[in-house]
């Protein structure tokens, strides 16, 4: 058992790229201290901070923290966050030493899923997917990407004899209009 764990960590080190830029970490890939990955729209980045080992999702435009492990520790050349084949995402002080884990997603299972992966979404969320494409775990993303503010818009739902004005949360008027259209309504109070 210890030999297979050690082999996994050795494999993880071998799979590390020097310039990670994709929005995913595949099973047995690691994000090392100082490295980052970006969402496909480029609005968010996941960083394993070289200064303190904290794993953080930032909004690129403002450098605002969207999510973080808030686990700090000393950093070495072996400090990394590994997407494991058991579907667990783990931050290690030293990826060659399983006992040095600092944080994990809590999704480890008695499986070997070599197609599992972690994805940084276009809303700043981190999501673990199984090889079958099923969502295993996720952090919350921003309700309104790019720093927008969620607001309530009055929407007249189902105009006619059963119409009613309902508050619809949306990031902008266009989103409110799309929600209104799904209710055969319009943005604004019923008349």
From TrEMBL:
Annotated keywords: Signal
This protein's record includes keyword Flavoprotein: no
Signal peptide limits: 1-22
Entry keyword annotation includes Signal: yes
Domain Bulb-type lectin intervals: 22-141
Origin: domain of life: Bacteria
Entries under SMART domains matching the protein: B_lectin
Record's protein name: Bulb-type lectin domain-containing protein
Organism: Hyalangium minutum
